[in-house]
Amino acid sequence: MSMLSTSTPSFAFLRSRWLGCPLALMLTSTWALAQDKRWGPGEPASDYGYRFGELFWLITTLVSVAFALVVVLLIVPMLRDRARPGHRASFDHGKSLHDKRLTAVISIITFIVLDAWVLVIAMKDLREAYWAIPAAKDPQTYKVEVLAQQWAWSFRAAGVDGEFGTPDDILTTNELVVPKDRPVSFNLTSKDVIHSLFLPEMRMKKDLNPGAINLAWFKPVVEGEFSILCAELCGFAHYQMFGKLRVLEQGQFNEWEAEASQLASTAFDADDTEGHWAWDWQE
Which of 71, 215, 227, 246 is the most buried (most CB within 10 A)? Predict the structure, then answer.
């Protein structure tokens, strides 16, 4: 008996070594990752982007608190009911009425806090921002038609005449130029398989389905260059389907649009049927 006691580590040692070290490592790693911007989502560049960050941190906080409570609920009976000198290990199956009531109360509180509350906030954000697509007839709305295919993005803007399907339409591949501080509205479809237009800095993502026109929008509030990605596995070259989003001040954008429309009119080829994929704008 004495040999067993001397060869078995103390419970305090197990507690400090097995629980303290992983916890310290987790906290240190979290702090280190937080200091490195490559591991974070970055600052939002659209006017509704902050909503995603707030909801993300709310969910992270709630889940972290719930995780900590579960850990406590696991550790307490481990310490209280463990086998030790003068005490025999004990357990039960939780079949008593008290245990069932406690489980029901915890489940209801968890649902209200972790599910219902988050759902209410998420639906409010969707109604007020993500689904609040600006009216196409609003002169401030910059409209873009998007045609995805394996493995490239084709963008079409109406040009200076404001009409789609005309010679001055601005056609670009894997590059989109938009004005700052104006809502950008999308009509999106796919030529082959399901793709997903993902603008991470703008906090916008929308699927593109063959045979359907989907709608999406964002309002850029930061000038610069940003990523265009595909967030749907669309084939073996999916990883190559990326592009560049450029946001320009209104004055610079007007100059770019006028020049791009003129070049498009000059290069227009009536016999190029592949380039005539415009459609009537959908709302």
Answer: 246
**What pLDDT score does 174 carry?**
95
155 plus 48 within the same structural domain: no
Partners of 130 in beta bridges: none
What local confidence, expressed as pLDDT, does residue 196 receive? 96
Using a 10 angstrom Cβ sphere, with 0-12 exposed, 13-18 middle and 19 or more buried, the burial of residue 244 is: middle
pLDDT in tens, 152-198: 999 999 988 889 989 999 999 999 999 999 999 999 999 999 999 99
Supply the range of the domain harboring residue 254: 142-269
The strand order across the sheet containing 142-149 reads 170-173, 152-157, 142-149, 184-190, 214-218
Please work out, in degrees rounded to the nearest 5, the angle formed at the alpha carbon of residue 128 by the alpha carbons of 124 and 129.
Answer: 115
Mean pLDDT of 214-228: 95
Among 136, 118, 147, smallest CA distance to 213 is for: 147
**What gap in Å lies between CA 157 and CA 241, rounded to an integer?**
20
Residues 112 and 200 in one domain: no
